[in-house]
């Protein structure tokens, strides 16, 4: 203990621990300080966005780029809704069942999808979202394009009734923190290291005895199941689901969270991206007409000039190559002087 | 099913299929040449339709001339967006950059481009639908089956463009360089060829194909700002069915999806799309790389 105390590693980890405690305290106290229900709603959406962004980051850590985060989000929402409204289960029974069902489904679909890494995987996942949306819209049993209304809120748990936005916020915060702890454990385990190796080079990882297909499938299943969990909460929080809510560019926004926050920060990156992408467009509503243009430009500027995302830029501030510029100017001056001489 | 309906459905299938083929050939050229998954392709298609509207309806030019001009304008738009966005981005990549990082960043950049183009067009032209009076309003009678001449012209023009493209890719030096770049850009550079301008022209050629597709379809369907978002999913689907990096596969996939959609909508209604998707997943089970492509790592 003494030895550790004197090392800088321990100081860093103590700083980290302090930061985590402060962040936790802020997250827990935050809804008590805010009056407006609308802001609380946004905070809940930030939590959901963070979970979805983290699933994207998990697949990215294994070298897979998914545009299908919304697919299993929708699967989770619909499964849980059907379990509660048709079979009359309570939310707390439907939750683990949803997780099991979506894990099985994602294993089945993932076994087909993951065979293609690279570009084909991106396209397959993008199309898969459309399949889910059209299936939900066309099948009468699932409510059609009108969706399903009046989904009950989570049943009360002892004295806590999930009626107010505040209680829902605490529920999603608990889910989020649980996922963060699990993901953190996975990333620092053998599995996380295998993923990183596969991302660097699948062939090299293969020579080291890592089965890239199986590890990628594992990432797909974990990520999809997490997204389904978020969808399950969303359905019962929002109380109505329509196929349109999962369609189109939701998955691309999820990807944006991860890129904006910092791709190499698998947990904190999506969180920061989600906060910014939820709150900034809200305040751009004033200029609603050009809001997508501003968002698009923002995205381009970040990708072109700060590819590390916000956290990456803070960690390694971009070097605007002043020294290189100076030496180039010097060289020009020298060559000009030589030209004058001759 | 009467033979008349059958022929009409076949013509419809060929019309949709040929538009998909043009779109996907463009996507594929961009993807193989520059390694960019271009999400803005649907918006380029939409811009092609609007440019045709501008030249044909507002300036009263000849249809063929307007079509060529819309292709040329879109080539310019494509070249400019490559120079402005993707060229800046690709300077950041080195040999050690992982493939997934490169793919992700260029795809995200194209998403940014997509948002700007989409909303920009919406602001310029408004949300209302616009129709172009077809330059070929006649209806021809083939063995007692009434077929609109517009559809026949669309199919004919698409075939013409495809033949032109294949001539360019397989019979000229320029096409040979483009095909070489899609295999190994470094090796092409070592041959003393400036690959930068090949990348630019790959992107411009792909964009021009999207613009031509939009221009060709404009007389048949109404021109709306949302037309780009609708077609991009189907184009990606066709790309996947046919196999990435195979022109023959793209044509087979386009025709297959066109046929399935045309007959499916007639007999099954809106659920047809779902069946097409399921069929694609089945195809991918047996042929992970698409009909005529190969699975990539």
Q: How would you describe the overall organization of this protein?
A:
The complex is a heterodimer of chains A (342) and B (297). Chain A has a domain of 206 residues. Chain A has 15 helices and no strands. Chain A has 342 residues and is mainly alpha-helical. Chain B is mainly alpha-helical. Chain B has a domain of 199 residues. Chain B is built from eleven helices and two strands, in the order H-H-H-H-E-E-H-H-H-H-H-H-H. Chain B has a two-stranded antiparallel sheet. In chain B, strand 1 and strand 2 form a beta hairpin. The longest helix of chain B has 32 residues.
Task: Give the arrangement of secondary structure elements.
The complex is a heterodimer of chains A (342) and B (297).
Chain A (H helix, E strand, L loop, with lengths): L1 H5 L1 H26 L3 H25 L7 H17 L5 H23 L5 H20 L26 H23 L2 H11 L1 H6 L4 H27 L11 H12 L6 H16 L7 H15 L3 H7 L6 H20 L1
Helix pairs in contact in A: 2-7, 3-7, 3-10, 3-11, 3-12, 4-5, 4-6, 4-10, 5-10, 7-10, 8-10, 11-12, 11-14
Chain B lengths: L2 H32 L6 H18 L4 H28 L8 H27 L13 E4 L2 E4 H23 L1 H11 L1 H6 L4 H23 L9 H16 L4 H21 L4 H15 L11
Antiparallel strand pairs in B: 1-2
Helix pairs in contact in B: 1-5, 1-6, 1-8, 1-9, 1-10, 2-3, 2-4, 2-8, 2-9, 3-4, 3-8, 5-6, 9-10, 10-11
Main sheet: strands, sense, barrel of chain B: 2 strands, antiparallel
Termini separation of chain A: 72 Å
User: Major β-sheet of chain A, in short?
Assistant: none
Shape of chain B: globular
The stretches of 5 or more residues of chain A where confidence is low (pLDDT under 50) are 1-6
SSE class of chain A = mainly alpha
Sum up the structure in keywords.
heterodimer, A: 342 residues, mainly alpha, 15 helices, 0% strand, globular, disordered N terminus, B: 297 residues, two-stranded antiparallel sheet, 11 helices, 74% helix
């Amino acid at each position: 203990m003494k030895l550790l105390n004197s090392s800088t590693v321990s100081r860093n980890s103590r700083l980290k621990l302090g930061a985590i405690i402060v962040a936790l305290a802020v997250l827990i106290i935050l809804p008590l300080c805010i009056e407006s229900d609308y802001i609380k709603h946004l905070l809940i959406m930030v939590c959901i966005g963070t979970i979805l962004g983290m699933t994207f980051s998990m697949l990215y850590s294994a070298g897979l780029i998914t545009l299908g985060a919304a697919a299993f989000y929708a699967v989770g929402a619909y499964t849980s809704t059907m379990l509660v409204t048709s079979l009359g289960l309570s939310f707390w029974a439907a939750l683990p069942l949803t997780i099991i069902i979506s894990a099985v489904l994602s294993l089945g679909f993932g076994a087909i999808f993951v065979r293609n890494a690279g570009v084909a995987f991106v396209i397959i996942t993008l199309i898969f979202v459309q399949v889910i949306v059209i299936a939900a819209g066309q099948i009468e049993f699932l409510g059609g394009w009108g969706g399903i209304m009046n989904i009950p809120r989570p049943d009360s748990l002892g004295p806590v009734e999930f009626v107010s936005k505040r209680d829902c916020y605490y529920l999603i915060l608990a889910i989020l923190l649980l996922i963060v702890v699990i993901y953190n454990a996975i990333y620092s385990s053998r599995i996380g290291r295998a993923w990183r190796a596969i991302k660097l080079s699948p062939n090299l990882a293969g020579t080291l005895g890592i089965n890239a297909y199986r590890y990628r499938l594992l990432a797909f299943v974990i990520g999809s199941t997490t997204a389904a969990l978020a969808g399950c909460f969303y359905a019962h929080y929002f109380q109505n689901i329509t196929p349109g809510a999962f369609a189109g560019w939701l998955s691309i926004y999820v990807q944006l969270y991860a890129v904006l926050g910092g791709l190499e920060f698998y947990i904190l990156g999506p969180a920061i991206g989600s906060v910014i992408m939820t709150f900034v467009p809200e305040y751009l509503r004033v200029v609603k007409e050009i809001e997508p243009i501003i968002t698009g430009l923002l995205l381009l500027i970040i990708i072109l000039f700060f590819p590390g995302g916000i956290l990456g830029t803070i960690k390694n501030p971009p070097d605007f190559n002043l020294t290189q510029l100076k030496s180039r100017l010097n060289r020009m001056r020298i060559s000009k002087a030589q030209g004058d001489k001759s | 099913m009467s033979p008349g309906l059958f022929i009409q459905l076949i013509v419809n299938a060929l019309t949709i299929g040929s538009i998909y083929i043009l779109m996907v050939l463009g996507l594929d050229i961009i993807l193989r040449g520059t390694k960019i998954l271009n999400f803005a392709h649907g918006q380029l298609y939409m811009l092609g339709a609007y440019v045709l509207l501008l030249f044909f309806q507002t300036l009263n030019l000849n249809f063929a001339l307007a079509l060529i001009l819309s292709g040329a304008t879109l080539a310019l738009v494509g070249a400019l967006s490559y120079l402005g966005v993707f060229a800046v981005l690709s300077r950041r990549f080195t040999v050690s950059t992982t493939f997934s990082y490169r793919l992700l960043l260029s795809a995200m950049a194209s998403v940014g481009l997509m948002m700007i183009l989409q909303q920009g067009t919406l602001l310029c032209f408004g949300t209302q639908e616009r129709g172009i009076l077809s330059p070929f309003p006649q209806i021809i009678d083939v063995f007692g089956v009434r077929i609109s001449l517009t559809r026949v012209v669309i199919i004919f023009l698409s075939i013409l463009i495809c033949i032109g493209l294949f001539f360019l890719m397989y019979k000229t030096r320029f096409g040979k360089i483009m095909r070489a770049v899609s295999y190994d850009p470094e090796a092409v550079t070592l041959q003393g060829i400036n690959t930068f301008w090949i990348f630019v022209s790959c992107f411009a050629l792909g964009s021009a194909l999207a613009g031509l597709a939009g221009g060709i379809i404009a007389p048949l369907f109404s021109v709306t700002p949302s037309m780009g978002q609708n077609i991009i999913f189907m184009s990606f689907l066709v790309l996947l069915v046919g196999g990435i990096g195979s022109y023959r596969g793209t044509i087979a996939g386009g025709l297959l999806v066109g046929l399935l959609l045309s007959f499916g909508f007639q007999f099954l209604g809106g659920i047809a799309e779902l069946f097409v998707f399921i069929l694609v997943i089945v195809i991918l089970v047996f042929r992970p790389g698409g009909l005529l492509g190969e699975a990539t790592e």
